[in-house]
Amino acid sequence: MTIPLLYNQEGSIAIITLNRPEKLNSLNPEMMELLERYVNQIEEDPQVRAVIIQGNGKAFSTGADLNAIPLDRANPITTEQFLRRWYRSINRLATCSKPSIARVHGYVLAGGLELMMACDLAVATLDCKIGDQHTNFGLIPGGGSTQRLPRLIGERRAKWLLYSGAWVTGQIAHDWGLVNEAVPTEKLDQTVLSMAQRLSEKSPFGLLNIKYLVDRGLGVDLDTGLDMEVRTASRYFLSEDCQIGIDAFLHKDQPKFLGR
């Protein structure tokens, strides 16, 4: 039986691969269960320093497998339970302490877009098709689009994509700040791997603290965020990784961080 979500590790980089190419990697409950399991495994593995999320076949993902969504008007709680399970899995990725990169190509639609946005970074092919598209089928988002999309590209552009169901290319997504890089297809793997390798050389403890400050800071006012940064940085300066970095700078050496 084919495993719909694959996990492997190349050195310090974990790779999670959506593996339903015949269904354009539409997401089902088994995949969401595996996603949460893999992220928990990544959290517990000190050897993993960065994570890549990608899709096999012609698409990253076209979103949820609609055949898997329970729609029972007599028992609406089943739909809510399904969506909360979906939210829990995607949010587990979003809160992972290891930096994550979405490697996207082909179609990145609806739940596929929501999965991409849960990653810290994203790299797309120039010609890939990215959009929310829920409204094209009388649906509304349930996996984060209404909240993450405006935070990434601003209210006006987010509302247009959410209201219209329109798709944009990888190039436009890059121009709007929805992805970090848009590259030709033949350069996608090289670009993503280079980014992951660069991140894997940084202090895991330092990146964890930066991610905490950025993510939490988006939900508070500027003064509160700046105070959080001062308090967090003060504690971080006492860490082993900080001392390793300072020693390497003073001795013109390459630091080898321990993650603590």
Automatic annotation (TrEMBL):
Q: Which GO terms describe its biological process?
A: fatty acid beta-oxidation
SUPFAM superfamilies per record = ClpP/crotonase
Origin superkingdom: Bacteria
Extract one GO molecular function annotation from the record: catalytic activity
Say which family it is in.
Belongs to the enoyl-CoA hydratase/isomerase family.
- Under what name is this protein listed? Crotonase
**UniProt source species:** Sulfobacillus benefaciens
